[in-house]
Design goal:
Distance between the termini: 23 Å
CATH architecture: 3-Layer(aba) Sandwich
Number of helices: 8
Order of helices and strands: EHEHHEHEEHEEEHEEEEHHEE
Number of strands: 14
Strand order of the largest sheet: 3-6-2-1-9-13-14-12
Largest sheet: 8 strands, mixed
Shape: globular
Bound molecules: aspartic acid, magnesium ion
Number of domains: 1
Radius of gyration: 17 Å
Strand content: 15-25%
């Protein structure tokens, strides 16, 4: 039995129908005899909309309150996906960062994960649950909510994969993998089948928005194989593993 961490980005959970489709994928993977932890981002443009909302209230908000506000987006996705999985007849349970004990420092809006206390998640997995975790958020040692920086759900997923010693971390997105250029802009861009952590780090630092930089750093450090693939097809994506 493999332990798989899957992460679904904002576009993959943007609508109720897409959440139901993701639930179907997750249930299929679970029935192939895997243990599954699923990390979700906020639906569609939720995070941008929440930032816009806050700006109307206070153009320079306290960062602590901004993080508290932004953390709600991922909680919505986690509760909905867990419920969608339950509707398909598999047991699932959703965790916030607080419930899943994802401990960070207190650098609001760009917090770093210090450790994950995996007891509760492992217990839920052992009871046969699919565990759905709200991405992008953490909790300080004094119980204040933080966020990990834009795109930070990737980092939640890879850090969880490292802490749980997962066999693989699958990052589902709206492109079919890592390309030589952005396929939405450059039509002749080629999909890369397999690249190294260092090559991926270079792409991420050059501004390729496929993966959060910190996520690649953690994957390299703990040798977590990453599979970047589309949530809209069954195509093999890009494997990052050497
Ligand atoms: N929802 C957050 C963002 O839009 C985190 C993420 O998508 O990974 O930046
Ligand atoms: Mg997002």
């Amino acid at each position: 039995m493999a332990l798989i961490v899957q992460k679904y980005g904002g576009s993959s959970v943007a609508t109720p129908q897409r959440i139901k489709n993701i639930a179907q994928r997750v249930v299929k993977a679970k029935r192939e005899k895997n243990k599954l932890v699923v990390v979700v981002s906020a639906m569609g443009d939720t995070t941008d909309n929440l930032i816009g909302l806050m700006k109307q209230i206070n153009p320079d908000p306290p960062k602590r309150e901004l993080d508290l506000l932004l953390s709600t987006g991922e909680i919505v996705s986690a509760a909905l996906l867990s419920s969608a999985i339950n509707a398909k007849g598999e047991k699932a349970i959703a965790f916030t960062a607080h419930q899943g004990k994802i401990i960070t420092d207190d650098a609001y809006t760009k917090a770093r994960i210090l450790r994950i206390e995996t007891g509760k998640i492992l217990e839920a997995l052992d009871k046969g649950n699919i565990v759905v975790v709200a991405g992008f958020q953490g909790i300080t040692s004094t119980n204040t909510i933080t966020t990990l920086g834009r795109g930070g759900s990737d980092t939640t997923a890879v850090a969880l994969a490292a802490a749980l010693k997962a066999d693989i971390c699958e990052i589902y997105t709206d492109v079919e993998g890592v390309f030589t250029a952005d396929p939405r802009i450059v039509p002749e861009a080629r999909k890369l089948k397999r690249i190294s952590y260092d090559e991926m780090l270079e792409l991420a630092s050059l501004g390729t928005k496929v993966l959060h930089l910190r996520a690649v750093e953690i994957a390299r450090k703990f040798h977590i194989p990453l599979h970047i693939r589309s949530s809209f097809t069954d195509e093999e994506g890009t494997l990052i593993d050497k």
